[in-house]
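Handout, section 4.2: multi-component inputs.
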Amino acid sequence: MNYPNGRKGTAQVLGKQEDSNQKFSNRGMTLENDINATNDYYLAAELAVIHKKPTPVQIVKVNYPKRSAAVITEAYFKQPSTTDYNGVYRGRYIDFEAKETKNKTSFPLKNIHPHQVEHMKSVIRQNGISFLLIRFSQLEETYYVTGDLLISLWEEHLQGGKKSIPYSFIKEHGRLIPFHYQKRVDYLTIIDQLHF
Amino acid sequence: MNYPNGRKGTAQVLGKQEDSNQKFSNRGMTLENDINATNDYYLAAELAVIHKKPTPVQIVKVNYPKRSAAVITEAYFKQPSTTDYNGVYRGRYIDFEAKETKNKTSFPLKNIHPHQVEHMKSVIRQNGISFLLIRFSQLEETYYVTGDLLISLWEEHLQGGKKSIPYSFIKEHGRLIPFHYQKRVDYLTIIDQLHF
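Output:
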């Protein structure tokens, strides 16, 4: 299957020989790649329109050898002021951030920027659907944590609470995201449970 | 008033001496600046959360003299596959593109990319609110054109129809966006009329 953006479907790239081992087939794929493949599938199947935002870059110098081939020769990465992914599902606004950790026992809150938490609060105030996807890459598990829960953990953390969220807490209060070949991080099933 | 991102409000920058001449006070501001100022106001007033997406850039080379100061030394502009602005208003997904023309009699359709029209179709299918803002900079007028209308004009154009939308047509079938000092492109008033 070819997706609208010309990328090949991830499932196809992995090949059929891995069908017998779901765990293994997820190995080595980054969370970002898996989410992009999932979003491509959602888009092609007309289930949702969700995209990753481009990396914010401060452009300083551009050379124009021809107008059609402008080269950026000096630019810097900017701190994102919002989350990475947003879009629409059944009329509702969807907005989330995705983070991966190699840590097996907890998720360090330093992975989240204060601006992003402020953004999540604003989104929730506007009745948007806000959440965080956390992948424990060593455990090959990806969890859905609601924006509300993340915000309350963040507030506790600011008032001298824990600097990280224990894995056991996420396992209990988050929701494990099912894995499918074409919907590698099928977060819409969780949204359906929580919001529809 | 200082907005969350540290930029000064546009109205403040313009100063009070221009109050008596609304037309003049808008001169020289780009549509993008006006929309950003409007979105800053909406965000600060907790009316809506709408941001411009970063310019999509293909990063080729990065130097890391120190980790904290990575310099991008080769990158290229990419064609945007979606629209420039999106976000949430009263739970609904908002998605739009904004274009400015110096032409006084029509809006050339070549300003819109086929990918963007496809994106608008997908957004409408998901029950999102999709539209195009067109500014006639010489006339100092900004119009709201619904995604549905743009798509039908685009389809006509592909089938050998006009290459541009006449100003008179936009004046009749679009909606003129009111100008306020803090809400320089107050498109939410139009969304309220059309969707709430």
